[in-house]
Structures are given as C-alpha cells and as structure tokens.
Amino acid sequence: MGRRALIGALGGIFVGLGLWAAGDSGSFARTLADFGPRNDHLVHDFGAASIAIGAGLVLAVRKTSWRTPILIVATVWNGLHAVSHLVDVSRAHSLAVGVGEAVLLVAGTALLGYLAATSRENR
After folding, report:
1. What is the pLDDT of residues 7-48, one digit of tens each?
2. Residues 6+ apart with CB under 8 A from 109
3. How many CB atoms lie within 10 A of CB 65?
4. Which among 111, 74, 104 has a CA at the least distance from the CA of 86?
5. Spans of all domains in the chain
6. How far is CA 120 from CA 45, 96, 113, in A?
7. What HEC string does 10-69 produce?
8. Is 78:14 a contact under the CB 8 Å cutoff?
9. pTM (predicted TM-score)
C-alpha cells in the first residue's frame, strides 16, 4: 500500500469510528468504550474529534501542505488516547477488549508518528 493510500485508509478508520460513536453511542460504548458508567456526551465528543482528525487525514492525501501538520496532530491525539487506555486497561468491561484497544492505539500511534517523521509534503 502506498503512503498516500495508507494515510487515506487511516483517515477513513478515524471517520468510521467517529461516525459510529456519534450515530450510535450506545452500541459504540458497549463494544469499545465500556469503561464504567456510560456517558453519551463523552462518546459524542470522541466521535467529533475522531471525525475531525480523520477528515484532516483524508484531505491531506491531496492537500500536500496539510500532510505533515495533520499527521503530527493525529499522532499527538492518538498518543494521548493510547495513554488513557493504558492507564484504564484494567477498568475495561472485557480485559481482552481493553488490552486489544491499548495495543492497537499504541501501534496506530507508532505508525502515525513514523508517517509524520518521514513526511515530505510533496510525496
């Protein structure tokens, strides 16, 4: 997969997760965000942030001047999200889901960080 296609795919994942969180917070919370009492407002906030990051990544596929800055923003946001999941991994309703999410978030952050560090706007 080419670099631009990978950035677009990551953007699509962020948008997809965000739309799920915003559109069906109950299902999203039961499946991925079951860390205690449900809070639809916070799930919707996650959805909004995820859609914004994802849209930026999708746009950065063509808007080359956006590529490095949005990759940096996505790396920071995803990294902070990963830290939150690592801290709360034992609070997940299902330990397997909690560990799985933490691993995917750390791996995603590493990938985004690599893409940001090696980004050249005109690639």
Report:
1. 999 999 999 999 999 999 999 999 988 888 889 999 999 999
2. 75, 78, 79, 82
3. 9
4. 104
5. 3-117
6. 31, 37, 13
7. HHHHHHHHHHHHHHCHHHHHHHCCCCCCCCHHHHHHHHHHHHHHHHHHHHHHHCHHHHHH
8. no
9. 0.91
